[in-house]
Design brief:
single chain, 207 residues, alpha/beta, two-stranded antiparallel ribbon, 30% helix
């Protein structure tokens, strides 16, 4: 009988992008290379990335630092709104501001996002079949990382908001059989020099 083993899900936001988000900046390319160097000794078996250019370019630069790890594009790792809360779900004091902010995102991201987010949970947020642990990297965007972290912590669905991830930072979640998910570390930028650590992070949250 086939057993079940732990999945180690590595989550990285893409590197810093240009204002039009069509490619990485010089800083973004350097961030991606440094993240790849950090992951060189990790037993990764797969790299997934979102279909947008900034995620694809980041994944390619990471993989150039690795030893033949296969890489694939996946819509599940794309940039979308993972959950649209109803007013009743939200804290009263912030509900109006939250709903106003979400209404500004493109209709396509809001309409297709929840189904993609549920599919991402089903595909990524669980132990794996077999007897060997599996280590996978997903190069994605801020919202999906927040969605997966809040799910690992059993937080309410709306709580993907407010979880911010710096460019090329690293989060790892462990999904082991018969145990709750464990967030091993979150938004780790230890592989980046100080001048590259805060890109993509709201200025008022820099500490």
């Amino acid at each position: 009988m086939t057993g079940r083993a732990a999945r180690y899900l590595y989550l990285a936001r893409h590197g810093e992008a240009t204002p039009d988000e069509s490619e990485l900046t010089d800083n973004g390319r350097r961030q991606a290379v440094l993240l790849g160097e950090r992951l060189r000794r990790s037993p990764l078996s797969l790299v997934l990335h979102g279909p947008l250019a900034r995620a694809e370019q980041t994944a390619r630069l990471i993989c150039e630092q690795l030893d033949g790890v296969p890489v694939r594009s996946s819509e599940l790792a794309g940039d979308y709104v993972p959950h649209l809360p109803q007013r009743a779900e939200l804290p009263v004091e912030s509900a109006d501001a939250t709903l106003a902010r979400l209404s500004q995102f493109p209709a396509e991201e809001r309409e297709r996002g929840p189904a993609l987010a549920e599919a991402a949970l089903a595909r990524l947020a669980a132990p794996v079949d077999g007897d060997e642990p599996r280590h996978e990297l997903v190069v994605t965007h801020n919202f999906l990382i927040g969605w997966l972290v809040r799910a690992a912590l059993d937080a309410p669905p709306w709580r993907w908001m407010g979880l911010n991830h710096a460019n090329a930072a690293l989060t790892v979640i462990r999904y082991a059989p018969d145990r709750p998910a464990s967030v091993l570390f979150y938004n780790d930028t230890g592989h980046l020099p100080a001048q590259l650590r805060w890109t993509g992070f709201p200025p008022d949250l820099h500490v």
